[in-house]
Q: What sequence folds into this?
Protein backbone atom coordinates (compact mmCIF):
# COMPACT_ATOMS: atom_id res chain seq x y z
CA UNK A 1 0.00 0.00 0.00
CA UNK A 2 1.24 3.49 -0.80
CA UNK A 3 1.34 6.41 1.62
CA UNK A 4 -2.20 7.51 0.77
CA UNK A 5 -3.70 4.13 1.62
CA UNK A 6 -4.66 2.95 -1.85
CA UNK A 7 -5.13 -0.78 -2.26
CA UNK A 8 -2.19 -2.71 -3.57
CA UNK A 9 -2.19 -4.26 -7.00
CA UNK A 10 -3.77 -7.46 -5.78
CA UNK A 11 -6.75 -5.54 -4.41
CA UNK A 12 -6.13 -6.75 -0.85
CA UNK A 13 -5.16 -4.68 2.16
CA UNK A 14 -2.08 -5.12 4.23
CA UNK A 15 -1.42 -3.87 7.73
CA UNK A 16 0.71 -0.75 8.05
CA UNK A 17 0.69 -0.66 11.85
CA UNK A 18 4.28 0.52 12.01
CA UNK A 19 3.91 3.29 9.41
CA UNK A 20 2.47 6.77 9.64
CA UNK A 21 -0.12 7.85 7.08
CA UNK A 22 1.46 11.28 7.20
CA UNK A 23 4.83 10.18 5.86
CA UNK A 24 8.16 9.34 7.44
CA UNK A 25 9.14 11.47 10.41
CA UNK A 26 5.95 13.51 10.50
CA UNK A 27 3.62 13.86 13.49
CA UNK A 28 -0.07 14.68 13.44
CA UNK A 29 0.73 18.36 13.98
CA UNK A 30 3.13 18.35 11.04
CA UNK A 31 1.08 16.35 8.62
CA UNK A 32 0.83 17.40 5.00
CA UNK A 33 -2.62 18.09 3.62
CA UNK A 34 -4.02 14.61 2.99
CA UNK A 35 -7.57 14.16 1.78
CA UNK A 36 -9.13 10.81 2.65
CA UNK A 37 -11.16 11.14 -0.55
CA UNK A 38 -8.16 12.05 -2.73
CA UNK A 39 -8.51 10.50 -6.18
CA UNK A 40 -12.27 9.93 -5.84
CA UNK A 41 -15.03 11.99 -7.40
CA UNK A 42 -16.74 13.83 -4.45
CA UNK A 43 -20.18 13.27 -5.96
CA UNK A 44 -19.46 9.56 -6.29
CA UNK A 45 -18.29 9.39 -2.67
CA UNK A 46 -21.52 11.02 -1.51
CA UNK A 47 -23.62 8.61 -3.58
CA UNK A 48 -21.84 5.56 -2.18
CA UNK A 49 -22.04 6.78 1.43
CA UNK A 50 -25.72 7.61 0.98
CA UNK A 51 -26.34 4.13 -0.40
CA UNK A 52 -24.59 2.61 2.61
CA UNK A 53 -26.52 4.90 4.98
CA UNK A 54 -29.88 3.86 3.56
CA UNK A 55 -29.06 0.14 3.58
CA UNK A 56 -27.28 -0.07 6.93
CA UNK A 57 -28.61 2.41 9.49
CA UNK A 58 -32.45 2.35 9.15
CA UNK A 59 -32.88 -1.41 9.42
CA UNK A 60 -30.40 -1.74 12.27
CA UNK A 61 -32.30 1.06 14.02
CA UNK A 62 -35.55 -0.82 13.42
CA UNK A 63 -34.06 -3.98 14.93
CA UNK A 64 -32.75 -2.15 17.98
CA UNK A 65 -36.02 -0.27 18.48
CA UNK A 66 -37.75 -3.64 18.63
CA UNK A 67 -35.08 -4.80 21.07
CA UNK A 68 -35.80 -1.85 23.36
CA UNK A 69 -39.54 -2.36 23.06
CA UNK A 70 -39.31 -6.05 23.86
CA UNK A 71 -37.06 -5.66 26.88
CA UNK A 72 -38.98 -2.72 28.38
CA UNK A 73 -42.61 -3.49 27.52
CA UNK A 74 -42.78 -5.33 30.82
CA UNK A 75 -43.45 -1.96 32.49
CA UNK A 76 -46.37 -1.28 30.12
CA UNK A 77 -47.78 -4.79 30.52
CA UNK A 78 -47.51 -4.35 34.26
CA UNK A 79 -49.56 -1.15 34.10
CA UNK A 80 -52.08 -2.91 31.82
CA UNK A 81 -52.89 -5.57 34.42
CA UNK A 82 -49.99 -8.02 34.48
CA UNK A 83 -48.79 -6.70 37.84
CA UNK A 84 -52.13 -7.47 39.46
CA UNK A 85 -52.71 -10.81 37.69
CA UNK A 86 -49.24 -12.20 38.47
CA UNK A 87 -49.08 -10.50 41.90
CA UNK A 88 -45.83 -8.68 41.04
CA UNK A 89 -46.31 -6.15 43.85
CA UNK A 90 -45.38 -8.80 46.44
CA UNK A 91 -41.83 -8.25 47.61
CA UNK A 92 -39.46 -7.43 44.74
CA UNK A 93 -41.01 -9.76 42.18
CA UNK A 94 -41.19 -7.07 39.52
CA UNK A 95 -37.59 -5.93 40.06
CA UNK A 96 -36.44 -9.58 39.92
CA UNK A 97 -38.21 -10.05 36.58
CA UNK A 98 -36.51 -6.90 35.28
CA UNK A 99 -33.16 -8.05 36.67
CA UNK A 100 -33.38 -11.55 35.16
CA UNK A 101 -32.88 -10.15 31.67
CA UNK A 102 -29.50 -8.60 32.41
CA UNK A 103 -27.53 -11.54 33.83
CA UNK A 104 -27.26 -13.52 30.55
CA UNK A 105 -27.25 -10.24 28.62
CA UNK A 106 -24.00 -9.22 30.35
CA UNK A 107 -22.32 -12.63 30.36
CA UNK A 108 -22.92 -13.30 26.65
CA UNK A 109 -21.84 -9.95 25.18
CA UNK A 110 -18.31 -11.01 24.27
CA UNK A 111 -19.13 -14.58 23.12
CA UNK A 112 -21.90 -13.12 20.95
CA UNK A 113 -19.39 -10.94 19.08
CA UNK A 114 -17.21 -13.96 18.37
CA UNK A 115 -20.28 -15.62 16.85
CA UNK A 116 -21.07 -12.54 14.77
CA UNK A 117 -17.59 -12.49 13.27
CA UNK A 118 -17.68 -16.25 12.61
CA UNK A 119 -21.12 -16.55 11.01
CA UNK A 120 -21.57 -13.02 9.63
CA UNK A 121 -23.87 -10.19 10.68
CA UNK A 122 -26.81 -11.14 8.46
CA UNK A 123 -27.19 -14.68 9.81
CA UNK A 124 -26.19 -13.98 13.42
CA UNK A 125 -28.21 -10.81 14.06
CA UNK A 126 -31.28 -11.95 12.13
CA UNK A 127 -31.39 -15.30 13.97
CA UNK A 128 -31.16 -13.49 17.30
CA UNK A 129 -34.10 -11.21 16.44
CA UNK A 130 -36.19 -14.14 15.22
CA UNK A 131 -35.54 -16.22 18.35
CA UNK A 132 -36.33 -13.49 20.86
CA UNK A 133 -39.54 -12.82 18.92
CA UNK A 134 -40.54 -16.40 19.73
CA UNK A 135 -39.67 -15.77 23.40
CA UNK A 136 -41.86 -12.65 23.40
CA UNK A 137 -44.83 -14.62 22.10
CA UNK A 138 -44.28 -17.18 24.88
CA UNK A 139 -44.35 -14.38 27.49
CA UNK A 140 -47.97 -13.79 26.54
CA UNK A 141 -48.84 -17.17 28.05
CA UNK A 142 -47.07 -17.09 31.43
CA UNK A 143 -49.07 -17.84 34.56
CA UNK A 144 -46.74 -16.83 37.37
CA UNK A 145 -43.75 -14.62 38.15
CA UNK A 146 -41.33 -17.56 37.96
CA UNK A 147 -42.19 -18.21 34.32
CA UNK A 148 -41.96 -14.51 33.58
CA UNK A 149 -38.46 -14.23 35.09
CA UNK A 150 -37.30 -17.35 33.23
CA UNK A 151 -38.43 -16.04 29.85
CA UNK A 152 -36.92 -12.64 30.63
CA UNK A 153 -33.59 -14.40 31.17
CA UNK A 154 -33.97 -16.20 27.82
CA UNK A 155 -34.76 -12.85 26.20
CA UNK A 156 -31.43 -11.58 27.54
CA UNK A 157 -29.63 -14.53 25.91
CA UNK A 158 -30.86 -13.65 22.43
CA UNK A 159 -30.71 -9.85 22.74
CA UNK A 160 -27.09 -9.89 23.95
CA UNK A 161 -25.69 -9.84 20.44
CA UNK A 162 -27.66 -6.97 18.91
CA UNK A 163 -26.48 -3.63 20.29
CA UNK A 164 -22.73 -4.37 20.36
CA UNK A 165 -23.08 -6.02 16.97
CA UNK A 166 -24.80 -2.97 15.48
CA UNK A 167 -22.29 -0.54 17.00
CA UNK A 168 -19.39 -2.64 15.74
CA UNK A 169 -20.90 -2.97 12.27
CA UNK A 170 -21.54 0.77 11.90
CA UNK A 171 -18.03 1.65 13.09
CA UNK A 172 -16.55 -0.71 10.46
CA UNK A 173 -18.25 1.08 7.55
CA UNK A 174 -17.34 4.72 8.19
CA UNK A 175 -14.30 6.88 8.79
CA UNK A 176 -13.93 8.33 12.27
CA UNK A 177 -15.40 11.76 11.51
CA UNK A 178 -18.59 10.13 10.17
CA UNK A 179 -19.24 7.49 12.82
CA UNK A 180 -20.77 9.44 15.69
CA UNK A 181 -23.72 11.09 13.97
CA UNK A 182 -24.73 7.72 12.50
CA UNK A 183 -24.47 5.98 15.86
CA UNK A 184 -26.58 8.78 17.35
CA UNK A 185 -29.21 8.53 14.60
CA UNK A 186 -29.23 4.74 14.95
CA UNK A 187 -29.68 4.87 18.72
CA UNK A 188 -32.03 7.80 19.20
CA UNK A 189 -34.30 6.69 16.33
CA UNK A 190 -34.56 3.35 18.08
CA UNK A 191 -35.31 5.04 21.39
CA UNK A 192 -37.92 7.35 19.85
CA UNK A 193 -39.70 4.45 18.13
CA UNK A 194 -39.58 2.45 21.35
CA UNK A 195 -41.10 5.47 23.11
CA UNK A 196 -44.10 5.14 20.82
CA UNK A 197 -44.48 1.59 22.12
CA UNK A 198 -46.49 3.04 24.98
CA UNK A 199 -49.18 4.10 22.52
CA UNK A 200 -49.00 0.73 20.76
CA UNK A 201 -49.26 -1.08 24.08
CA UNK A 202 -52.26 1.02 25.05
CA UNK A 203 -53.99 0.00 21.80
CA UNK A 204 -53.10 -3.67 22.16
CA UNK A 205 -54.35 -3.71 25.74
CA UNK A 206 -57.81 -2.86 24.34
CA UNK A 207 -57.88 -6.42 22.95
CA UNK A 208 -58.62 -7.52 26.51
CA UNK A 209 -60.94 -10.52 26.46
CA UNK A 210 -60.25 -11.53 22.85
CA UNK A 211 -59.65 -15.29 22.64
CA UNK A 212 -60.04 -15.31 26.41
CA UNK A 213 -56.72 -13.49 26.93
CA UNK A 214 -56.00 -10.46 29.09
CA UNK A 215 -54.98 -7.24 27.35
CA UNK A 216 -51.43 -7.33 28.67
CA UNK A 217 -50.93 -10.77 27.09
CA UNK A 218 -51.78 -9.36 23.67
CA UNK A 219 -49.00 -6.79 24.14
CA UNK A 220 -46.41 -9.57 24.29
CA UNK A 221 -48.02 -11.77 21.61
CA UNK A 222 -48.49 -9.13 18.90
CA UNK A 223 -45.13 -7.47 19.52
CA UNK A 224 -43.49 -10.90 19.46
CA UNK A 225 -45.04 -11.67 16.06
CA UNK A 226 -43.79 -8.32 14.71
CA UNK A 227 -40.30 -9.07 16.09
CA UNK A 228 -40.14 -12.52 14.46
CA UNK A 229 -41.22 -11.02 11.12
CA UNK A 230 -38.47 -8.38 11.29
CA UNK A 231 -35.97 -11.14 12.09
CA UNK A 232 -36.96 -12.96 8.90
CA UNK A 233 -36.53 -9.75 6.88
CA UNK A 234 -33.08 -9.36 8.38
CA UNK A 235 -31.76 -12.35 6.42
CA UNK A 236 -32.40 -10.34 3.26
CA UNK A 237 -31.51 -6.80 4.39
CA UNK A 238 -28.70 -6.82 6.99
CA UNK A 239 -25.25 -6.42 5.44
CA UNK A 240 -21.91 -7.82 6.55
CA UNK A 241 -18.53 -6.06 6.52
CA UNK A 242 -17.62 -3.84 3.53
CA UNK A 243 -15.46 -6.43 1.75
CA UNK A 244 -18.46 -8.81 1.66
CA UNK A 245 -21.12 -6.26 0.66
CA UNK A 246 -23.06 -7.71 -2.27
CA UNK A 247 -25.20 -4.58 -2.71
CA UNK A 248 -22.13 -2.52 -3.73
CA UNK A 249 -20.10 -2.68 -6.91
CA UNK A 250 -16.43 -3.61 -6.69
CA UNK A 251 -15.45 0.03 -7.20
CA UNK A 252 -17.75 1.15 -4.40
CA UNK A 253 -16.38 -1.51 -2.04
CA UNK A 254 -12.82 -0.40 -2.82
CA UNK A 255 -13.82 3.20 -2.10
CA UNK A 256 -15.19 2.27 1.34
CA UNK A 257 -12.15 0.15 2.21
CA UNK A 258 -9.63 2.72 0.96
CA UNK A 259 -11.21 5.53 2.98
CA UNK A 260 -11.12 3.40 6.14
CA UNK A 261 -7.53 2.37 5.49
CA UNK A 262 -6.45 5.98 5.00
CA UNK A 263 -8.32 7.08 8.11
CA UNK A 264 -7.12 4.48 10.61
CA UNK A 265 -5.41 1.59 8.76
CA UNK A 266 -7.72 -1.19 9.93
CA UNK A 267 -9.73 -2.10 6.86
CA UNK A 268 -8.24 -5.59 7.00
CA UNK A 269 -9.92 -8.37 9.01
CA UNK A 270 -8.12 -9.63 12.10
CA UNK A 271 -9.44 -12.45 14.26
CA UNK A 272 -10.44 -11.89 17.89
CA UNK A 273 -8.24 -14.44 19.66
CA UNK A 274 -7.87 -15.26 23.35
CA UNK A 275 -4.41 -13.67 23.33
CA UNK A 276 -5.76 -10.43 21.89
CA UNK A 277 -8.67 -10.44 24.33
CA UNK A 278 -6.22 -10.69 27.25
CA UNK A 279 -4.16 -7.81 25.83
CA UNK A 280 -7.18 -5.59 25.22
CA UNK A 281 -8.36 -6.25 28.78
CA UNK A 282 -5.27 -4.40 30.04
CA UNK A 283 -6.22 -1.19 28.21
CA UNK A 284 -7.45 1.03 31.05
CA UNK A 285 -9.27 3.53 28.82
CA UNK A 286 -11.68 0.81 27.68
CA UNK A 287 -12.73 0.21 31.29
CA UNK A 288 -13.27 3.94 31.81
CA UNK A 289 -15.48 4.05 28.72
CA UNK A 290 -17.33 0.98 30.02
CA UNK A 291 -17.96 2.61 33.41
CA UNK A 292 -19.18 5.78 31.69
CA UNK A 293 -21.53 3.74 29.53
CA UNK A 294 -22.86 1.86 32.54
CA UNK A 295 -23.48 5.17 34.32
CA UNK A 296 -25.36 6.43 31.25
CA UNK A 297 -27.55 3.36 30.95
CA UNK A 298 -28.45 3.49 34.64
CA UNK A 299 -30.50 6.54 33.72
CA UNK A 300 -31.82 5.26 30.39
CA UNK A 301 -33.03 1.95 31.85
CA UNK A 302 -34.53 3.68 34.87
CA UNK A 303 -36.65 5.83 32.55
CA UNK A 304 -37.61 2.81 30.42
CA UNK A 305 -38.80 0.70 33.35
CA UNK A 306 -40.07 3.23 35.87
CA UNK A 307 -41.17 6.36 33.95
CA UNK A 308 -44.84 5.24 33.69
CA UNK A 309 -44.89 4.87 37.47
CA UNK A 310 -43.15 8.25 37.96
CA UNK A 311 -45.69 9.97 35.69
CA UNK A 312 -48.56 8.28 37.52
CA UNK A 313 -47.09 9.77 40.69
CA UNK A 314 -47.46 13.24 39.14
CA UNK A 315 -51.21 12.76 39.17
CA UNK A 316 -51.84 11.33 35.69
CA UNK A 317 -54.03 8.24 35.49
CA UNK A 318 -52.39 4.98 34.44
CA UNK A 319 -53.64 4.97 30.84
CA UNK A 320 -52.74 8.62 30.20
CA UNK A 321 -49.29 8.21 31.76
CA UNK A 322 -48.57 5.44 29.24
CA UNK A 323 -49.26 7.88 26.40
CA UNK A 324 -47.21 10.67 28.01
CA UNK A 325 -44.18 8.38 28.08
CA UNK A 326 -43.79 8.71 24.29
CA UNK A 327 -43.21 12.46 23.94
CA UNK A 328 -39.93 12.84 25.89
CA UNK A 329 -38.41 10.06 23.75
CA UNK A 330 -39.48 11.81 20.55
CA UNK A 331 -37.93 15.04 21.85
CA UNK A 332 -34.66 13.15 22.57
CA UNK A 333 -34.03 12.98 18.81
CA UNK A 334 -33.16 16.70 18.82
CA UNK A 335 -30.30 16.76 21.36
CA UNK A 336 -29.00 13.32 20.30
CA UNK A 337 -28.67 14.13 16.60
CA UNK A 338 -27.44 17.66 17.30
CA UNK A 339 -24.68 16.64 19.71
CA UNK A 340 -23.79 13.65 17.52
CA UNK A 341 -23.38 15.95 14.51
CA UNK A 342 -21.34 18.49 16.49
CA UNK A 343 -19.16 15.72 17.90
CA UNK A 344 -18.23 14.62 14.37
CA UNK A 345 -17.98 18.17 13.04
CA UNK A 346 -15.64 19.43 15.77
CA UNK A 347 -13.98 16.04 16.39
CA UNK A 348 -14.19 16.99 20.07
CA UNK A 349 -16.06 14.31 21.98
CA UNK A 350 -16.09 14.95 25.73
CA UNK A 351 -17.72 18.39 25.93
CA UNK A 352 -20.99 17.17 24.41
CA UNK A 353 -21.16 14.28 26.86
CA UNK A 354 -20.66 16.72 29.75
CA UNK A 355 -23.42 19.03 28.45
CA UNK A 356 -25.87 16.14 28.16
CA UNK A 357 -24.97 14.86 31.64
CA UNK A 358 -25.67 18.32 33.08
CA UNK A 359 -29.04 18.45 31.28
CA UNK A 360 -29.92 15.01 32.66
CA UNK A 361 -29.07 16.10 36.21
CA UNK A 362 -31.11 19.28 35.80
CA UNK A 363 -34.06 17.27 34.51
CA UNK A 364 -33.94 14.78 37.38
CA UNK A 365 -33.81 17.63 39.87
CA UNK A 366 -36.89 19.24 38.31
CA UNK A 367 -39.18 16.21 38.21
CA UNK A 368 -38.05 14.99 41.63
CA UNK A 369 -37.79 18.08 43.79
CA UNK A 370 -40.30 20.57 42.37
CA UNK A 371 -43.57 20.78 44.37
CA UNK A 372 -46.17 18.20 43.37
CA UNK A 373 -48.47 20.99 42.17
CA UNK A 374 -45.96 22.15 39.51
CA UNK A 375 -46.85 19.33 37.12
CA UNK A 376 -45.80 21.16 33.94
CA UNK A 377 -42.35 21.93 35.35
CA UNK A 378 -41.88 18.37 36.54
CA UNK A 379 -42.91 16.97 33.15
CA UNK A 380 -40.49 19.40 31.46
CA UNK A 381 -37.79 17.89 33.66
CA UNK A 382 -38.61 14.47 32.21
CA UNK A 383 -37.89 15.90 28.73
CA UNK A 384 -34.51 17.29 29.79
CA UNK A 385 -33.53 14.08 31.54
CA UNK A 386 -34.67 11.82 28.70
CA UNK A 387 -32.83 13.95 26.12
CA UNK A 388 -29.59 14.11 28.11
CA UNK A 389 -29.51 10.46 29.12
CA UNK A 390 -30.34 9.04 25.71
CA UNK A 391 -27.98 11.39 23.87
CA UNK A 392 -25.03 10.21 25.94
CA UNK A 393 -25.46 6.49 25.29
CA UNK A 394 -24.34 6.73 21.61
CA UNK A 395 -21.84 9.51 22.38
CA UNK A 396 -19.92 7.37 24.87
CA UNK A 397 -19.79 4.32 22.62
CA UNK A 398 -18.88 6.53 19.66
CA UNK A 399 -15.99 8.14 21.55
CA UNK A 400 -14.70 4.69 22.45
CA UNK A 401 -14.82 3.53 18.83
CA UNK A 402 -12.78 6.48 17.50
CA UNK A 403 -10.20 5.98 20.27
CA UNK A 404 -9.04 2.55 19.10
CA UNK A 405 -7.84 0.67 16.03
CA UNK A 406 -8.21 -2.87 14.65
CA UNK A 407 -11.48 -4.65 13.95
CA UNK A 408 -10.93 -7.22 16.68
CA UNK A 409 -10.42 -4.50 19.29
CA UNK A 410 -13.50 -2.70 17.99
CA UNK A 411 -15.59 -5.86 18.49
CA UNK A 412 -14.12 -6.46 21.95
CA UNK A 413 -14.72 -2.85 23.00
CA UNK A 414 -18.35 -2.89 21.82
CA UNK A 415 -19.00 -6.07 23.79
CA UNK A 416 -17.27 -4.82 26.96
CA UNK A 417 -19.03 -1.47 26.95
CA UNK A 418 -22.50 -2.85 26.23
CA UNK A 419 -21.97 -5.47 28.95
CA UNK A 420 -21.44 -2.62 31.40
CA UNK A 421 -24.58 -1.10 29.97
CA UNK A 422 -26.31 -4.24 31.20
CA UNK A 423 -24.77 -3.63 34.62
CA UNK A 424 -26.43 -0.22 34.49
CA UNK A 425 -29.74 -2.00 33.92
CA UNK A 426 -29.15 -4.23 36.94
CA UNK A 427 -28.26 -1.24 39.10
CA UNK A 428 -31.38 0.65 38.03
CA UNK A 429 -33.54 -2.38 38.90
CA UNK A 430 -31.93 -2.55 42.36
CA UNK A 431 -31.90 1.14 43.34
CA UNK A 432 -35.37 1.96 42.01
CA UNK A 433 -37.10 -0.07 44.69
CA UNK A 434 -40.79 -0.87 44.49
CA UNK A 435 -41.45 0.32 48.03
CA UNK A 436 -40.30 3.83 47.06
CA UNK A 437 -42.68 4.20 44.11
CA UNK A 438 -43.58 6.62 42.64
CA UNK A 439 -40.86 9.05 43.82
CA UNK A 440 -37.91 6.61 43.84
CA UNK A 441 -35.74 9.08 45.78
CA UNK A 442 -32.81 6.69 46.36
CA UNK A 443 -32.80 5.70 42.69
CA UNK A 444 -32.87 9.33 41.54
CA UNK A 445 -30.01 10.33 43.85
CA UNK A 446 -27.95 7.37 42.66
CA UNK A 447 -28.58 8.29 39.01
CA UNK A 448 -27.56 11.89 39.67
CA UNK A 449 -24.33 10.61 41.25
CA UNK A 450 -23.74 8.40 38.19
CA UNK A 451 -23.95 11.43 35.91
CA UNK A 452 -21.58 13.40 38.11
CA UNK A 453 -19.17 10.49 37.65
CA UNK A 454 -19.58 10.80 33.86
CA UNK A 455 -18.52 14.45 34.03
CA UNK A 456 -15.47 13.64 36.18
CA UNK A 457 -14.52 10.73 33.90
CA UNK A 458 -14.74 12.94 30.81
CA UNK A 459 -12.39 15.47 32.40
CA UNK A 460 -9.93 12.75 33.41
CA UNK A 461 -10.00 10.91 30.10
CA UNK A 462 -9.61 14.11 28.07
CA UNK A 463 -6.62 15.17 30.16
CA UNK A 464 -5.05 11.74 29.76
CA UNK A 465 -5.62 11.74 25.98
CA UNK A 466 -4.14 15.23 25.67
CA UNK A 467 -1.07 14.12 27.61
CA UNK A 468 -0.62 11.02 25.45
CA UNK A 469 -1.06 13.02 22.24
CA UNK A 470 1.73 15.40 23.34
CA UNK A 471 3.96 12.41 24.07
CA UNK A 472 3.22 10.99 20.63
CA UNK A 473 3.95 14.32 18.95
CA UNK A 474 7.31 14.37 20.71
CA UNK A 475 8.05 10.91 19.34
CA UNK A 476 8.13 9.31 22.81
CA UNK A 477 5.21 6.90 22.32
CA UNK A 478 3.23 5.28 19.51
CA UNK A 479 -0.53 5.29 20.09
CA UNK A 480 -2.63 2.24 19.17
CA UNK A 481 0.37 0.72 17.34
CA UNK A 482 0.22 3.42 14.67
CA UNK A 483 2.53 6.42 14.43
CA UNK A 484 -0.11 8.69 12.92
CA UNK A 485 -2.89 7.90 15.38
CA UNK A 486 -4.05 10.63 17.79
CA UNK A 487 -6.85 10.57 20.35
CA UNK A 488 -9.83 12.87 19.95
CA UNK A 489 -10.67 14.79 23.10
A:
Amino acid sequence: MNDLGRPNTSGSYQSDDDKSPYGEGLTSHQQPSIDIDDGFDPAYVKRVIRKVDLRLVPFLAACYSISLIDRTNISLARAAGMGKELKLSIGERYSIAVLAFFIPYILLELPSQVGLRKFGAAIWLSSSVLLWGVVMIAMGFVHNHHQLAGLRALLGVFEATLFPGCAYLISCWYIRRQVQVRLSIFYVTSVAISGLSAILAYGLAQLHGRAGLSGWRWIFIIEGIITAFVGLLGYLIIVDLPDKAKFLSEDAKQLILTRIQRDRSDAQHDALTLKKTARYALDIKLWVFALMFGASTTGSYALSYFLPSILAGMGFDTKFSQILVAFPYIYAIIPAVTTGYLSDKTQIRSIWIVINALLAIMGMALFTFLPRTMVAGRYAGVFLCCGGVNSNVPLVIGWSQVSIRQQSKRAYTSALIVAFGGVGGIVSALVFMEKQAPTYRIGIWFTIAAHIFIIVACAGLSSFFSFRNRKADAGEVVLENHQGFRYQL
Residues 1-33 have pLDDT under 50 and may be disordered. The radius of gyration is 23 Å. The CA atoms of residues 151 and 323 lie 26 Å apart.
